[in-house]
Amino acid sequence: MRKLSKLLLALSFVVSVTSSAFAVTVASWGGAYTESQKLGYGDPTAKALGIEINWVDYSGGLSEIKAQKEAGAITWDIIDLFAFDTINGCDEGLFVEFDFDKDFPAAPDGTPASEDFFTGMPSKCAVGNILYSWNYAFDTRAFSGAEPKTIKDFFDTKKFPGKRAIYKSALTNLEIALAADGVKMGKGGDRLYRFMEEKDGYIDRAMNKVKALCEDPNGGCVFWSAGAQPPELLVAGEVVMATGWNGRFFNAEVGEGAPIKQVWDGQGLDYEYFALVKGGPDEANAKKALAMMTNTEMLAGSAKYIAYAPWRKSSLEIIKAGEPWYKDGKTEMMPQMPTAPANTKNYFLVDPFFWADYGTEIGEKWEAMKAGLN
Amino acid sequence: MSSENKILTTDGLPLEVSLKKAEKRNKIKAFLLVAPLLLFLLITYIFPIGEMFTRSIDDRMITNMLPKTFESMKKWDGKELPPEEVYRSFYEDYKILAEKKVHGKLGQRLNKEKNGFNSILKRLFRKVKSNQIDESKSIKEQIIKIHKHYRNVDYWRAIKRTAPPYTINKYLKGMDMYLDEDGNVAQVSEDRRIHRILWLRTLEIALFVTIFCFLMGYPIAHLLATLPMKYSNLLMICVLLPFWTSLLVRTASWMILLQQQGLVNDFFVMIGLVADDSRPEMMYNKVGTYVAMTQILLPFMVLPLYSVMKTISPSLMRAGKSLGGTPFVAFWKVYFPLTIPGIGAGCLLVFILAIGYYITPALVGGASGTLISNQIAFHMKQTLDWSFASAMGLMLLTGVLVIYWIYNKLVGVDNIKLG
């Protein structure tokens, strides 16, 4: 039975193997994001190393790579994924473990790679790529007087009546709910996570806060699931405020001139990583390509196309020196970065360990809460 | 009858034998003809379902990972914290796993049983790796110092629950239940009971979508079957057009049409049907799901109905009327019964497709947009709990089969007609 299943799974991958031999295949999220990766560092790396880099789209999660591995026919070399996926994948033995200072080049001034990274990696299998933000934006046409400025304002339906759009699952919603409910975040949000993990009642408190917002006749919730939705809901006038990914808001605001404005108070900084697949079709070249794509210069390149911050501190120097860095030649990128000092006065780092460990149970509670909404 | 009297064929064989031979050859030929299809069904259908089933009950991995622990847990009643012996054997098992570098898999597996396990195991791993645990002293004392969860009996109960190599736990979990350490079926805590709600919601949505599709599809199919060819062809294209459009595009267009500031609401306000500040909500709730799914699944209802109605002679209705029936009676007593095979086929098709939908509800359904299939996708992609996903997939399949069986009892499967 096992053997037959392997054979079957293998058969289904054979076609893709033959078509992608002798090239490094990177699986990423597609759209404007992959475009920024391809133009920013994919193509330059391919050219410099004289190899071919193929980009394939996938929709996140580890199911595909796990299936490829079980079939014994791995077709992807590098995957772009969330922190908790790198943790789970590392535990499952899907990815190569790195020795950061040996495997990745130092910054131009000689700072070793591990110190040049914005913060420590969540697992030995992950190398940082970008930082993005879960912040919120509001419709500038909706409020004539005062504008929302803090995370508390997002939940304040008296001062700012109207519907809100929030992410469909509990991720980051609990954090902002607690922060808005008066819980001090602590440095990088560590207090929030410590309380939720160790003290009883904090998760329920956060859920109740969200529930109250959704049931408020002056408020109400729309749940978004795709990243393109929040700016669209705002522009359509469907909601007055929406949480979302800052790159998407930036594209709407700067790229398309939409009447929206971002609020950075209480933002959640989150990361995107690359992982190197163990036993991928071209592991040696993939490793070389990965080291190059994540070096100082290359990472800065992707910020030309999208408002996500590079993982290396030294990349920021390149952007600063090259302002205006955005591809339109007139927009300064530094103030748009989630890591800009003005934007990180009150923020939390989305904790992948917390969500990897407690995500399922919280998810069940969250869905039960949603099912009870009237 | 003696052998001499047997009728012989020209080549000297008894007719009976010769006939059997020919029949056998025909049978083999017939079988060879269907063999590719049979093989196809076996490979793409029977086999994966079997694989899903084994996956959903197979829990041997952890049984093999913690042999000593389970052995020593046999004597533990699960009421209070386990004795030193259990802690020690758990530590010994874990040490072996850590040496083999497969401890991560154990953490993953146990975290599915009880959230929070993975991180406390990682803490233990760090201690084990740096040799900080003194084996000559009480292991229990040292382990419970690592994290307070090790002092929580729930975590040890969770380990005990995973002992059997085969388990129906995943199926119970799909119904918000679990086997407690005494082997009794228990309910999960109230604020986490979500699957039963999702099952009911999935059924409800599939049922209503089927009804709406039927109510809308029947007149359309009737029109298609009775109109002259040149009009009906045009109408047919209109029915089929959505078929050729991507599912996501259709869902997105409904979002544009139905949202509160959308076209339909704008129109209502324009003609003065509703006030501008009290626009009805037609999106991000069940209404949105019903509308979008009904439109998407409508062709699956219209086509079988149409193909059945096309075969009904119009003279039958005329005969019914000339025998004294009002148009309604003629329709109800003559026409409608003849269309039942088409109704059966259409309803089954739509219902079965609707029960597995999840992208459309997730996009347009708002808070009520999570269905059981979303949960399956979540466990496939995010938590990697494939055995739970398999169990729920099979429960869904069983549900469909039960509905098929009920349908068979009520209407009869022979009465299904796709054309």
What is this structure's SSE topology?
The complex is a heterodimer of chains A (about 375) and B (about 425).
Chain A: H1 2-19, E1 24-28, H2 31-49, E2 53-57, H3 63-71, E3 78-82, H4 83-91, H5 100-103, H6 113-116, E4 126-139, H7 151-155, E5 164-167, H8 173-180, H9 190-198, H10 202-215, E6 221-224, H11 229-235, E7 241-245, H12 246-255, E8 260-276, H13 283-293, H14 296-302, E9 309-310, H15 313-322, E10 347-349, H16 352-371
Parallel strand pairs in A: 1-2, 1-3, 5-6, 5-7, 8-10
Antiparallel strand pairs in A: 3-8, 4-7, 4-8, 4-9
Helix pairs in contact in A: 1-3, 2-13, 2-14, 4-16, 8-10, 14-15
Chain B: H1 15-57, H2 60-65, H3 67-73, H4 84-99, H5 103-113, H6 117-129, H7 139-146, H8 153-161, H9 169-173, E1 177-179, E2 185-187, H10 195-226, H11 229-240, H12 247-258, H13 263-270, H14 286-309, H15 314-322, H16 327-355, H17 359-364, H18 372-381, H19 386-410
Antiparallel strand pairs in B: 1-2
Helix pairs in contact in B: 1-19, 3-4, 4-7, 5-6, 10-11, 10-14, 10-16, 12-14, 14-16, 15-16, 16-19, 18-19
